[in-house]
Amino acid sequence: MTPIITAFENSPDRGRGLARDLRVRWALEEVGQPYDVRLVSFREMKEPAHRRLHPFGQIPTYEEDGLALFESGAIVLHVAQRHAGLLPTSGTARARATAWMFAALNTVEPPIVERSMATILERDKPWYAERLVILDERVRVRLRELSTRLGDADWLEGDFNAGDLLMVTVLRRLEGSGLLDPFRNLTEYVARGEARPAYRRAFAAQLAVFTDRNPG
Ligand SMILES: N[C@@H](CCC(=O)N[C@@H](CS)C(=O)NCC(=O)O)C(=O)O
Questions:
Q1: Does residue 59 come out as left (phi exceeding 0), alpha (psi in the -120 to 50 range) or beta?
Q2: What letter would DSSP give residue 64?
Q3: Ligand 1 near 75 CB (within 6 A)
């Protein structure tokens, strides 16, 4: 069966590639697995039919041969385990790559998401400016640490793997914040990810959903 993923019918980021179905599309493109997309509205995401797939009423989900998955990291891991190309074959290297997947989602993404939620939801609060300074610094701490570890390498752990795929998508969430700019190796790292043909195909497919529905 061709896997089916879910994505926003009308993405709040206007197709800038921040919705998390991008990670799944990118992983599927990297391994050459065709997929179908079911678009869902915000209302549909909260209805029982979608919640049967995703307990938290979100995207992305993934369905394939009786398997239903939610959580972008779990889906990317599943794709990477099922196909060659996104995880090293040796057990040790595979475990290291998996550690970077968790690092991207558990250590680097949370302060970035907290900051971006504050910029959306707390902008009109009297304490916003003060809080933003704190949130920015939390993000900077992680970026400094990641930048130090990456050094002059192209990728985090040898060849490009699913850990890089997730890390690049996480760092892309800082687009427009200016926070990534002082870290040249990280901006180049993100650019390397975005230059991959599989990324470009995934990005174009996600953007097409938005532009098809919002012509002009
Ligand atoms: N930890 C989840 C987060 C999923 C998530 O936040 N999805 C967003 C889109 S990127 C969503 O569906 N937002 C709408 C909502 O929460 O109502 C994952 O990585 O899949």
A1: beta
A2: E
A3: no
